[in-house]
Design brief:
506 residues, alpha/beta, Immunoglobulin-like, TIM Barrel, 10 helices, globular, binds alpha-L-arabinofuranose
């Protein structure tokens, strides 16, 4: 069957927020220690930050980084991570059954964000932590001076406040794996009280110019028995005080389980449905509250993660090499579809964090004392971050369906973006069919178009990966730009099992 892709410059989904290109660094495995921070690495700067990793992160194009967790945050005392490093306490991390030395904490993270050219998104502990702990953390980071915690920051690290704009009120508080998880009503009330205290300290109401942005925990995934009721209850408790509801979702290829390859290729479709449900839940609560404010989605954990292979034993090691998933070309194809789905919902998804960033289910891998390199998923993210700017257009496609064991979806997954300033139209297309497909792209509303680039990632063996020994086995390839006829139509072939990027200019 011939594929068709149609988009019109007047049919706009919404503006793409630059924070859709966020990521996540948790005190987990070798993400911090042996990842971004390795003082005795040959490329480390005076702060112990690996410069080779910093440079890959800049190339990836990450706008905001969530920290310090994740499951870790629900048992974390932020006060353990400040002050004289030699006096910091080593503690048990219950989230990952690891040892936390606290050598790296908030002051180091803020410094690292500056070096990486990104902004922080900090999380409050809503497990063992209280609303008062959250207030004190906020005071330490954002209050200028003249109070105990702001003066402590001035003494420890920085005369100026950090002015952290994005704050998460806890992490996955519905999950029984979370330290001190709770029911929706209890969490909703605690989150609302915490939010009110932060708003008071910030001296601005929700939505006011310059006010901090607060995110509450939505369901930690679509399989939770409490989903989507959890989201409704949390929103009803917090709607007037917050800005975002969080969503988390990981996908996996499970050939040994009951999920065939076709199911994995339906992942983007599942993500789209999940977003639809949460979008409707937000609308429902807005209407019920007769509110004028809009709450948006912070999809602050998304990726591919082989959770069936998760093993954190033996326990109580420092920075153990856990969750070090190696990504295949097959993963990059699905990842491309997930990225497209976030962009296709950019009217409601205003923040998203690829989970995670370095070594732990990550686009960037590091060898201790050695090289750092790009995993397959690095490229699909970097191309979007660099090129999918401006607005997303509504796309109409013609294609066939792929049928999985548990669900079915379009075999063609597409996103079309328009950057008015740069006069660019970008098409991101995944062909999940096991055959090459002739395709017509029709973009006539733009007038005379020229194809500037055609890049693809594909290959006969979709299980190929990049490794430290062969870091560039799976990389995107430049193809010849395609010819544009009738002022806006182009014919091309989307190779079987491929991710494609086509850029037009006008
Ligand atoms: O990203 C890994 C873990 O996945 C996070 O710590 C947690 O929030 C989620 O369950």
């Amino acid at each position: 069957m011939k594929y068709k892709i149609f988009a019109d410059k007047n049919l706009v989904v919404g503006a793409i927020s630059e924070n859709i290109y966020g990521s996540f660094l948790e005190h987990l495995g070798r993400a911090i220690y042996g990842g971004i921070y390795e003082p005795d690495h040959p490329s480390a700067d005076g702060n112990g930050f690996r410069k080779d990793v910093l440079s890959l992160i800049k190339e990836l194009g990450v706008s905001v980084v969530r920290y310090p967790g994740g499951n870790f945050v629900s048992g974390y005392d932020w006060k353990d991570g400040i002050g004289n490093v030699a006096e910091r306490k080593t503690r048990l991390d219950l989230g990952w059954k690891s040892i936390e030395t606290n050598e790296f904490g908030t002051d180091e993270f803020i410094k690292w964000c500056k070096a990486a050219g990104t902004q922080p998104m900090l999380a409050f502990n809503m497990g063992t932590g209280t609303p008062m702990d959250a207030l004190e953390y906020f005071e330490y980071c954002n209050h200028p001076s003249g109070t105990y915690f702001s003066d402590l920051r001035r003494k420890n690290a920085s005369e100026k406040p950090y002015n952290v704009k994005y704050w998460c009120i806890g992490n996955e508080m519905d999950g029984p794996w979370q330290t001190c998880s709770m029911d929706a009503e209890s969490y909703g009330k605690k989150a609302m009280q915490t939010a009110r205290m932060i708003r008071a300290a910030d001296c601005r109401a929700a939505g006011e110019d310059g006010a901090v942005k607060l995110t509450v925990c939505g369901s930690s995934n679509r399989e939770m028995p409490s989903y989507p009721e959890w989201d409704r209850v949390v929103l009803e408790n917090t709607y007037d005080e917050i800005d975002f509801l969080s969503m988390h979702r990981y996908y996996e290829y499970d050939p040994e389980g009951k999920k065939p390859l076709e199911d994995f290729f339906c992942s983007a479709d599942d993500m789209n449905e999940f977003i639809d449900v949460i979008r409707s839940t937000i609308k429902f609560v807005k209407e019920k509250k007769r509110s004028k404010r809009n709450i948006y989605i912070s999809f602050d954990e998304w990726n591919i993660w082989k959770q069936n292979k998760l093993d954190v034993t033996p326990f109580w090691r420092k920075a153990p090499p856990i969750l070090e998933d190696v990504y295949t070309l097959r993963d990059a194809l699905v990842f491309g579809g997930l990225m497209n789905t976030l962009l296709n919902n950019c009217d409601v998804v205003k923040v998203a964090c690829l989970a995670q960033l370095v070594n732990v289910i990550a686009p960037i891998m590091c060898e201790k004392g050695g090289i750092s390199y790009r995993q397959t998923i690095f490229y699909t993210f970097a191309f979007a971050s660099k090129n999918a700017r401006g607005e997303t257009l509504k796309t109409i496609t013609a294609c066939d369906r792929i049928e999985g064991g548990n669900r079915d979806a379009d075999s063609l997954n597409v996103c079309v973006t328009h950057n008015r300033e740069k006069r660019e139209v970008c098409v991101f297309a995944c062909n999940y069919a096991g055959e090459d497909r002739d395709t017509t792209i029709e973009l006539r509303s733009f007038g005379k178009l020229k194809c500037a680039r055609f890049v693809m990632m594909n290959g006969e063996d979709i299980s190929l990966t990049n490794t430290a020994a062969e870091p560039e086995r799976v990389v995107p390839r430049e193809a010849s730009p395609v010819e544009v006829y009738d002022e806006g139509k182009a014919d091309l072939t989307l190779k079987k099992h491929s991710w494609n990027f086509i850029k037009f200019t006008y």
